[in-house]
Design a protein that fits this description.
single chain, globular, about 200 residues
């Protein structure tokens, strides 16, 4: 089966959906500011520990959505995409092959936009809808490829095009494609894998 692989944040949309959703929730559920005296110090300490490589990025991200138990999640997600769906890049609607979107963003946030856009497969970071915490590993880097092959037998798929805004983080998925596209300010910029990754 021929497939195309897409990153999501800053690729299909021009923003980081998880961060923007957090801001949306603070605006629409202002009582969340009561959590800030606890949340901000915890996040700062976790960020310092991550930068010092004492904890992993996945461990850090486990606490980023700790506000989820305090909001009506389904309603918040629908409201968020009602506001931001129009920002999906127009070229994504012209896809011609089976589309696999692989993202580090939360499943509870991206499932709604998958339903709206109608793309075939979504692979993203699993989160608990009750606590907001990551379940398993953060879906980025090499984990994206591992999760892809968890869903599909390696010999059953043929990756044609790969799209991502991140040359640095998405080398593993770019390595799978026949054609690579770096998304820069919403535009598709083709490049040769061997010319960019010379090691």
């Amino acid at each position: 089966m021929d497939i195309d692989i897409y990153d999501f944040d800053k690729t299909i949309v021009p923003f980081d959906s998880g961060s923007l959703f957090s801001g949306y929730c603070i605006l629409h559920y202002p009582y969340l500011v009561l959590l800030l005296p606890i949340a901000v110090p915890v996040l700062l300490v976790a960020m310092l520990l991550m930068r010092a490589k004492i904890i992993s990025f996945t461990s850090f991200k486990k606490i980023c959505f700790m506000f989820v138990p305090f909001i009506p999640l389904e309603r918040a997600v629908k409201g968020f995409w009602n506001r931001h769906e129009k920002e999906v890049h127009k070229w994504f609607y012209d896809r011609k092959r089976y589309a696999v979107v692989i993202s580090a963003s939360p499943d509870f946030l991206l499932k709604e936009i998958q339903d709206r856009l109608g793309f075939e497969k979504l692979i993203c970071t699993r989160h608990s809808r009750k606590t907001g915490a990551i379940v398993g590993e953060n879906c980025r880097g090499k984990e994206k490829v591992r999760r892809l092959y968890e869903e599909y037998d390696k010999d059953s798929i043929n990756v044609i095009d790969v799209y991502s805004d991140s040359i640095y983080h998405d080398k593993p998925i770019f390595s799978l494609g026949q054609n690579c596209y770096h998304i820069v300010k919403g535009e598709k910029v083709p490049f040769k894998f061997d010319e960019v990754y010379k090691d």
